[in-house]
Amino acid sequence: MEKLKLEKGQRECPKCSSSWDGGSILETFIKGRDDDSQKWCKDMTNEEIEEDMKACYSAPYRWGREIGIELPFDHPNHYDGISYYQCPDCKTTFNRFTGIEEEIV
Fold first, then answer.
1. Helices within 10-45 (DSSP H only)
2. Angstrom distance (rounded) from CA 14 to CA 99
3. What is the pLDDT of residues 36-95, one digit of tens each?
4. How is residue 32 annotated by DSSP?
5. Residues with Cβ < 8 Å from 61, sequence gap 6 or more?
6. Whether the Cβ atoms of residue 103 and residue 5 lie closer than 8 Å to each other
7. Which residues contact 87 (CB under 8 A, 6 or more apart)?
């Protein structure tokens, strides 16, 4: 059976086609300011929130739904960072470096 491949920058699961786009970071912060759930920006303008967001996040300034998996330190394939991405819906796992569908062992 041919393995599925996750292409760099792809925003949907190659297996189940679910979207991994979690929405606009800026819209989340502005809504949070307005409903008082983001207290850190309660006195900021939209422009100030956007400036702060751009200093802390990367374009395209969208949340991701994919799950990043870091292997334990004692795992033989340990990497200091995310080694796999997993679809939150179908749980298929993709190697971060090759994009190939894999099971973690």
1. 25-34
2. 10
3. 999 999 999 999 999 999 999 999 999 999 999 999 999 988 889 999 999 999 999 999
4. H
5. 24, 25, 26, 53, 54
6. no
7. 13, 15, 16, 18, 20, 66, 67, 93
CA 46 vs. chain centroid, Å, equals: 24
β-strand 67-69 against 84-86: which pairing, if any? antiparallel
- CA dihedral for 60, 97, 10, 32, sign (positive or negative): negative
Q: Which two tokens stand for residue 4?
A: 């599925």
Is the pLDDT assigned to residue 1 strictly greater than 70? no
CA 25 – CA 9 distance, rounded (Å): 17
Residue 38: partners with Cβ closer than 8 Å, 6 or more residues away: 28, 29, 31, 32
